[in-house]
Amino acid sequence: MSIQTLVESPAATKSAFSSATFDEYVMSTYGRFPLALVRGEGSRVWDAEGREYLDFVAGIATCTLGHAHPALVEAVTNQIKTLHHVSNLYYIPQQGQLAQWLVEHSCADKAFFCNSGAEANEGAIKLARKYAHTVLGIQEPVIITAHASFHGRTLATITATGQPKYQQNFDPLMPGFQYVPYNDIPALEAAIAQIDTGERRVAAILLEALQGEGGVRPGDLAYFQRVREICTAKGILLILDEVQVGMARSGKLWGYENLGIEPDIFTSAKGLGGGIPIGAMLCKQFCDVFKPGDHASTFGGNPFVCAAALAVCQTLEKENILANVQARGEQLRAGLKAIALKYPDLITEVRGWGLINGLELNAEAALTSTEVIKAAISEGLLIVPAGPKVLRFVPPLIVTAEEIAQALLALERAIAQAIK
Known about the structure:
Helix content: 40-55%
Distance between the termini: 43 Å
CATH superfamily of the domain at 92-318: Type I PLP-dependent aspartate aminotransferase-like (Major domain)
Number of helices: 15
Structural class: alpha/beta
Oligomer: single chain
Radius of gyration: 22 Å
């Protein structure tokens, strides 16, 4: 059976797909919902049974333009017919064009391309350590990160991640990291004072502008402005992880724009390629200390992925998608708050920016986010957890007002079903 037949015919996919066979050959690194998705268009997807769903997961904040967007389809089709991969030992025009777009639309001066958010954050960690050694003269550099953060699954980035559940059984972890509470300036200042003794000093502070996996918790404006002041005064690099909130997800092109500051280094991935794997680490000129041989990526920034990312970037501008993110985000939050008023004992808070929003369940309630998500699937709505008590809503940025309204109705039905 051809791939084309599988894609075009849900019935054919149904007969070809077996979860038991899948589980026999694929490692169990995910707790999967009993759903096999085979086709998508816009903000909707279809499973192997032919059933339609509103996709408010979007590959976890990744499918910026939704599914099968004409601009992305055209870009990847044309590029795969022309030249899909060459080594970074040669100039890649598409990579240069993408770097130019990102620099011209951010506070950065330089870009490095890789394949994922974890790799982008790994690159930022390496850059900060080399800067600490070669420019600041720090013998034992320390990077401060936040509790409840999430920065990736590599050994360095799970160490940077301030959540023990991701670190369990992977020790010994990487040295050179220390954690502080998020949005807490006194705790940060105390940590810096405690660290800065002798050869051990703070080289960088790595934070998310909004904590995604940590419960969809936006950064506090006053906190981040004070962090920027501290970093500037002490020569500490400020690194922002924009993997989930960047590329217009927050209602601004970059999450840091919501906070009125500029980082020295920031990272991007997820929405950058609209579902095609690409990551980027961007920095200001003064801290660009990498030399040939310091860092590399075989697939990073190849013609295919850069053509896809360029299509995403250009479409964001051409279709004024930021305006849609802002309007639909306000609509979604208003609807979630209305639902929260109906269930005051169950729902404690609605929070977020743009089209990354969280609905927090009461910690004392017996209901979990997973139970609501399973009920939502039965109502034709896909959402994703951000911890055991937070529901996360991250639809494609092209989602319509009608689709937001439909999703809110489906969520209400799901909650009513889950609490029975």
